[in-house]
Amino acid sequence: MTIADIERQIPETVVGAVRGTVIFSALVGLAVGIACLVWPSATINVLGILLGIALVVAGLFRIYQSFAATYLSGGLRFALGLIGLMILWAGIVVLWHPASDGWDNDYRAWFLAVFIGIGWIFQGLGDLFGATTGSRHSSVWWAIFSGVVAIAAGIIMIAWPNLGLSTFVWVSGILLIVISIVSLFNLPKKV
């Protein structure tokens, strides 16, 4: 059986649905990419709000887990609940900074930059650790290079959050536009 035989077995309605989904995703990607380039500060604010919502949901889930995970010891359940409360608190702080009279976009952007920066630093440390374990999944030198670049990007994001986030939004916007256009030219063919 060849790929062509398999393709002939896929109903036209499925191919049409996939084409529709790809077109919709590409158009949304184009719109978001253009929004990133036209309104970078608004994009950063929306990303900060989404981060805050994600933190609140993650914190509530961890708190729920601390009560539902009866197979864990009391100490682990307490630690899980405490972590959940800290994550929930961080989400509330991102969504509504208590020192402001309402929404504080600068604080939200700073928190988002720190979150991304810490993530990149941990990713870089993971890459460096992976390079020392003798794993043959990638070149040792590429793993070291990737680790150093990720750590440097994380430090830059934390040290200069406005520059880091602006660059991040611009590059993301350009990539979204390019990927969306390429997706539109690479639609599944009707059989």
UniProtKB/TrEMBL annotation:
The chain crosses the membrane at residues 21-40, 46-64, 76-97, 109-128, 140-161, 167-187. It comes from the Bacteria. InterPro entries: Acid_resist_chaperone_HdeD, DUF308_memb. Keywords: Membrane, Transmembrane, Transmembrane helix. It holds the Pfam family DUF308. GO terms for cellular component: plasma membrane. This is DUF308 domain-containing protein.
